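Progress note, project year one: complex with alpha-D-galactopyranose.
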Amino acid sequence: MPPKAIVTLAALATLALAACGPAKKTGVTQEMTKQPFGKTPEGEQVELYTLTNSKGMEVSVMTYGGIIVSLKTPDRAGRLADVVLGFDNLDGYLKGHPYFGAIIGRYGNRIAKGRFTLDGVTYKLARNNGENHLHGGIKGFDKVVWKAREAGPQSLELSYLSKDGEEGYPGNLSVTVTYTLTEAGELKIDYQATTDKPTVLNLTNHSYFNLAGQGEGDVLGHQVMIMADRFTPVDAGLIPTGELRAVDGTPFDFRMPRAIGERINAADEQLKLGKGYDHNFVLSGAAGTLRQAARVVEPKSGRVMEVFTTEPAMQLYTGNFLDGTITGKGGKVYQHRYGFCMETQHYPDSPNQAAFPSVVLRPGGRYQTTTVYKFSASHS
Ligand code: GLA
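Model obtained:
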């Protein structure tokens, strides 16, 4: 790894304080640091930014893929642990991985048969998941280098221009994703985009969480609540059938807290198709307004994660494809179901399903969504 040339961006704030006379202790250390994190095979420099709040919470994001590399939050005794899966260095990510921590685009989740028709024109996309298109294609937003700008003391703005035709999608798409860490333990992600041609998009983040700490066992004991009365059942290729099915009486009813593992092996056709949970939940409340989507408690550590979003839906994925072949941070081996994802999103395959909320963005319009992952500790 290159030498640790840490640039303290809080230095500016400190200077400003110093200019106003003797430094006063405010008790708030809000700083962002930046360090080189290696180079892509094409020679592009990758930086790692670290955001910190005064409670000791720390989030590191790199410019390659906008990936959340680590996220440290306290347990009920104040002990910090890194609660996301990933690698210690860029090489780990470059070798290929199942989207750990990454920004996903242009289209998070699947588009059936890698094609859709918009305004009478049919667009062809890569079929990188059986016969379907997944997570933006061969080189999605998880594999490009984003341009970084400090938008505030704890706010990192990443931008990327996706060219007309990239991965088969129409329109020059200008995308901005802003990560903000707040004093209230929230990691806020704001997604924005504009286009010069009609197009489709569905941006999300693919962090794998384990609130006991990354690599510390499977997530089956996590207690999950999801504010959804319905979900979208899928076919064998994990494409929604079009039905919005009530969760009542199914293993998909998380309206009261239930352990992830409680029903995951139930004799349920949908669980069999997903090899566990890999499904899109239709969130209650009005899409477009920031409302609670989920609450997760890890009983041993007491760590709590709440998810809030403006998106209409959320994919719960329980790391069903993790199989012990990946060694991650600190030499931890990621076994089956060692992490879960809560990918806030529009429904999968929306470009082909007219009855689903629209994912079309047109010139003059602005794509704007927000998702908040809020961390705390439960003392009960
Ligand atoms: C998403 C998909 C899963 C899987 C993972 C990555 O969550 O829904 O089926 O492809 O990404 O392994």
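Residues 1-27 have pLDDT under 50 and may be disordered.
The first strand starts at residue 7 and ends at 8.
No further modelling is planned for this target in the current period.
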